[in-house]
Fold this protein.
Amino acid sequence: MARAVTPQRKLVNTGVAWAVGLLIFFPILWTILTSFKTEAQAINDPPLFLFFDWTLENYTIVQERSNYMRFLWNSVIIAGGSTILGILIAVPAAWSMAFVPSRRTKDILLWMLSTKMLPAVGVLYPIYLLFIQLGLLDSRAGLVVVLMLINLPIIVWMLYTYFREIPGEILEAARMDGAELRQEILYILTPMAIPGIASTLLLNFILAWNEAFWTLNLTAVDAAPLTAFIASYSSPEGLFFAKLSAASTMAIAPILILGWFSQKQLVRGLTFGAVK
Amino acid sequence: MFLKNALRAATALTLVSAAAAQAQTITIATVNNGDMIRMQGYTDQFTEQTGIEVEWVTLEENVLRQRVTTDITTKGGQFDIMTIGMYETPIWGANGWLVPLDDLSAEYDVDDILPAMRNGLSHDGTLYAAPFYGESSMVMYRTDLMEAAGLEMPQAPTWEFIREAAAAMDDPENDINGICLRGKAGWGEGGAFITVTGNSFGARWFDENWTAQFDQPEWSEALNFYVNLMNDYGPEGYATNGFNENLSLFQQGKCGMWIDATVAASFVTNPDDSTVADHVGFALAPNKDGVEKRANWLWAWALAIPAGTQQEDAAKQFIEWATSKDYIELVAENEGWANVPPGARTSLYETPEYQEVPFAQMTLDSINAADPTDPTVDPVPYVGIQFVAIPEFAGIATLVSQEFSAAYAGQQSIEEALEKAQAITTEEMEAAGY
Amino acid sequence: MATQHSRSAARLMMAPAVVLLLGWMLVPLIMTLYFSFRNYFPLRPDRVPGWAGFDNYVRFFTSSAFWPSVQTTLVIVGGVLVITVVLGILLAMLLDQPMWGQGVVRILVIAPFFVMPTVSALVWKNMFMDPVNGLLAHLWRFFGAEPVSWLSEVPTASIVMIVSWQWLPFATLILLTAIQSLDSEQLEAAAMDGAPKLKQFWYIILPHLSRAITIVILIQTIFLLSIFAEIFVTTGGAFGTRTLTYLIFQRVLESQNVGLGSAGGVYAIILANIVAIFLMRIVGKNLDA
């Protein structure tokens, strides 16, 4: 919605927007800055912004204490696996809801969303016992399934709203030409839906990456992701702001970078059908 | 039930045969305290000696407790060694969830463990967890400020003297608080501190019939004293200060006195971290004049083996290594005597080099002054000084300490807090079937 | 347009998702229901588990902590919703204006959404809200004011603030996409007619956003009803910040009373469904194509 405005107006807009943007971003910026300070500098009064002796010692300490790469890898596998599995299951469901709606479609959709409202902690013991019986404790496979189930309603819903924006006439035309259902999905819908699928993928990857209850309680060593990594850096003894900042930066950096690079895709599909 | 047992046996068999085939690895859940982190650094030496690999799961205290409790009660078998405290050990030991440590080797010298620690980590005379380090609590004070105030700290001060000294040292203009104490909610934080303070005023959690005692005058007196002291001479926002917040205040020279864990002594006297390292003195925790019990607790972080682990022998080997005299010497050699894990072994306090450490004797005296079986003036049906060793306590005490903290923050009166504490405790004990 | 054939195919395609979710909902739900009628104390193997009837339900409901926790839950959810929607609209309108470096500003604004709740709670609690070393305390002292100990003096507001910071980007993004789809001719016509800005906003922009706002409210409510890490890390439920979810956590894990906690879980499900029905009433209308 490009509108012609005076340069003065644009300057004011720019100034205000940048100020607000930096204010919102500031806690993250401050965390990153603090991660390069010594512990003493981290609590210096007055606070130090840029003019301090930049050091990497916190990152060295964190790396020595815990195997970052293993946590990172587990996070990638768990978040990625659960998202991809979720998409595979959700695409057919969303397709049928969008193109072959019945009276109950909306009820099913809303019911799916309501399953997300179960308080997780209430079922910790049941799920833990179930995982013991199935031998899934501390396994990435178990977490992939749990996180997939947690996010499935959101995935189905996002895809559904996206599919609905695809005009039905195109499908009719394809059917006239004798396209089978399989072909219809594969060659017509999927290409059109790729932006929607991409942003669904991204959003759920972020949600799975940040999930901190199940990932912490169902893992020990082999499957522990970055949420478990961060759980050991709020120190009960002595100064820890700088080390906490380093660990935090390491935990959020991958997803932050991914998010920034893909923010255009993310934004395009994040409409949940809100735009018509 | 039969099916379940059969299944379990079958799984156990497969696990045993699988374990025999590969190099041994043990998984240890531990807390992220400094001494534990240091131990992780020396693990390679253990692996070199024994060929046993060690995997660490290091978690913040609250997360750790939640994690290991879930695992032990469901027999999840995720860990071969758990780091637990003096609160959990007797309860879990009594439930048969821990492997008894009654066959440790002769060179380990189990009799060398400080009697107070050994008692606290045993159930019916059987040791269930080996102390990695132990602590009591004591007064740490600024010698320079005391001198300037013209006072002298006795070896065994009373609360009245502490108040007097706090008034004398309090200096808001220079950002110095007379006294810093824990107020943070949580049974192991402010809850522990107010419980021992209660003991030193003759208060108790329960009478012999498990009836809550917060409606008794001793509690009211203790709580009023604490709140008045802190409102007058304590730091702003003390209701959210726990061990670590106070440590950092003291290290920055913002406290005249601090009554807390004896392990803090090595942090406040370490010149790398503390701006007041050269001016710290120590004294026994205070009592109310005329009450024989002092406000000092007893705690140990200890290593225990959950029953049912497939790696029992390897786990025992690790525990013997980590809590041995040799380990203490190893740390002393590399990091100096002030940094060895304290409070676990008698022999440490007989080591001449360690006796030179300024806080060593006071730590030992404080530990010896604490008796978990007889925590307060009146008889009680429970074991434990700053806690009550029943499974329900952590939950109850967290709720109660949250009410107290709300009173510290001025959100409710002390009377209201005590009334709610009494109601909560009664309600919870009833729910638990006492 | 649907034939019989495509209908049955549609059912088949929906089946995996529906069956899985049904399982995911029913298995824990049935287990929760089962435990809620039992005496189950994991730390007390000496106590033979048995049927408790409705004891757990009565006890949970009559406990002094119950109603305050429901209230806290609603205050936190409501507070965050109001803040994120209002600020989200303002922010979206700002970002929609022509400016230099729009892409970068948008990146800055959405960044908090990528931060793990645990990390954001730790960072806010320690590095900003700490009354001694926190940045806000430094700022207050710089202006000669007495530092506020946020998490004990205004605990609920502080948590609402932290959570709002995390969810503001989400609201902003959805509202921004909606604003960008607004027909600018309509606005220009209104401006020509001399309609004041406020009227334009009230009669044109806000109605246009209503659908996006409902979406934001719906999605966020789902996530906000179960916030946990932010409370666990910052106050541990003290100072009146105990939500229903947190109360259940205290019952199950701190008090180790699974029966009582499970009864609480059932109440939470009921509350969630009340909120859900309430939301569906509003959203349902708006979601109709």
